[in-house]
Amino acid sequence: MGLAAPCNPRSGPIPRTPEMQLRGKEAAVCNAPRSSLDRGRMAGTEVDMFSLVSYTAPGSTFVASQAGQQKIYNESRGAFGQGNWSLTVVVPPCYFQVDFVCGAVIDHFGPAGSNIFYSAQDRLISADNGGSSAPPANLKPIN
């Protein structure tokens, strides 16, 4: 098996077939056959890196101008080759965003219109937002 490589964002569009699942708003799970996420790997590699990350958020919908207020709550990542695999994260008990992405997580989103967003980098595979209350001041990340 080759070394883990980040997905090459310029190797073509990311297939949108596998979907993230929220189970009871407690955990987000991604299960996908690796072949359905094939991204035109970098030469000489047999695996690609994927991440699933949950963030606390200022509201229940995504607003680019407020994205810098999001904080990582929990993350899971792995380098995967052929076969079935899964990633799981805990969703915070407040407003949240969960992203399933190609490559590493972004720990602080950039200002609106910048390239410091998964979609601007062409790495976003699936995302979800929700929740019904603001993050409590004493909420600690799970890592």
Keywords:
three-stranded antiparallel beta sheet; five-stranded mixed beta sheet; 0% helix; 143 residues; mainly beta
Q: Can you walk through the features of this model?
A:
The chain has 143 residues and is mainly β. The chain is built from no helices and eight strands. 27% of the residues are buried. Residues 1-6, 8-17 and 33-44 have low confidence and may be disordered.
Structure summary, number of beta strands:
8
Shape: globular
User: In angstroms, what separates the terminal alpha carbons?
Assistant: 28 Å
- Spans of at least 5 consecutive residues whose pLDDT stays below 50 are 1-6, 8-17, 33-44
Task: Describe the structure in brief.
This protein is 0% helix and 37% strand. The chain contains no helices and eight strands.
